[in-house]
Amino acid sequence: MLRFAAAFPNRSRSYVQTSTHRFNSRSHAAETSQSLVDTIYSPRARLILEFTPANSNTGQKLPVAIEKSFAPFTSAVVLLVQPLNGLFPSRMILKLNDRRCGNRGYDSSDLPWHPSVEPVLYKNLREILRGARENGFKCLGGTEPRYGIVRTEGWEKEIEVWGEKTRAWRTEVRAYHLLQSLQGTVIPRFFGTVKLPLRAPPAMHAVTDFVPGMLLEYLDAPSLEDVEVGVDVTTTQAECISQNVLAAYRCIADLDCVEHWDIRLGNILLRPDRTPSIIDFGHSVLREEARHTGMWRVPGSGDMKEIRRRLLGRDAGALPW
Questions:
Q1: Can you give the pTM of this predicted structure?
Q2: Could you read off the pLDDT of 78-99 as tens digits, one per residue?
Q3: Exposed end of the chain (fewer CB within 10 Å): N or C?
C-alpha cells in the first residue's frame, strides 16, 4: 500500500505558527489586490454576464448575484454566485481572469492596478490599433524585440498582464472541452464561458472592453490542503483518498490530451463521497491532434511517481514508495 497519507496537513503548533508567519509575510501587492477584489466583487453585488453555453455559440445575458469570493487566490478571481434567471444550479463558481486582480507577474514588486491607468491605456492602445504607435506586443499580434524588452510604463504592464491571463483562460477553457468525459467526476462540470463588460460601447479591444471568465460546478467541498488526518479523516481513509487521487490523475493521463501542471493539494477538492475533483487547468499543457504524443508531454508530467513527489513536496523522500 502506498504511504500517501503524509501528504495531508497536520495542524500541529508549528504548522499554525508557520501559517501565521506566511500570512503576515504576504506582499503589499497581494494585500492591495485582495482589497481590490473585495471592492469590485463585494458580496450581494450583481453582475450582468454575457454567457455562452459550452455546447453553443449563441450568447445570452445572465445576471448573477455574488455570494462571496474565495481567498487566497492566485491569477484568477473565484466567486460563488447565484444565477438570477435561467435553468442553472442555484449556486455556481464564476472564475474571472481579471487583469486588475490577483497575481500580475512573477515579480512581487509588480505595480498593482489603479483606475488612473485606464485612460492612459485606452489612449495608447487606440494608437497601436490605428498604426500610430509601434506594436511591440505579441498578445496584440505584434512582434516583440528578439531579446525582449523591459516594460516601464503602467499601461504597458496592463497589456502584458492581460495577455498572460487571457492565455490562461483560453487554456483552461480548452482543457475542459478536451476532458468533457471526466466532467462531474474527476473534474467539475463546465457550463460555458462568460464576458464581464468593463466599459460602455463602442467596443475597442478585449484588453479594455471585458473580463473573460467561465462558469463551473460549485462543490461544497474542502481542498486536500484543508483536510486533517485524525480530525477530518482517519489514516485508513486518507490512504484510500490518496489512491483515488492517483486514479483521477491516471484518468486524465489516459485521455492523452491534457497535462495538469499545477499539481498541489489546494487544487484537489474532496467531494462528500470522498472522491477527488481536480481543478485549475490554466497552466496545463494541451495536446493538439497534429502533434506526436512523444513530443508534447512535459518531462515528468503524467508520471505517478512525479505526481506523488509534487503533492508531498519535501516529505516525499521519507515515504517508502
A1: 0.84
A2: 999 999 987 899 999 999 999 9
A3: N
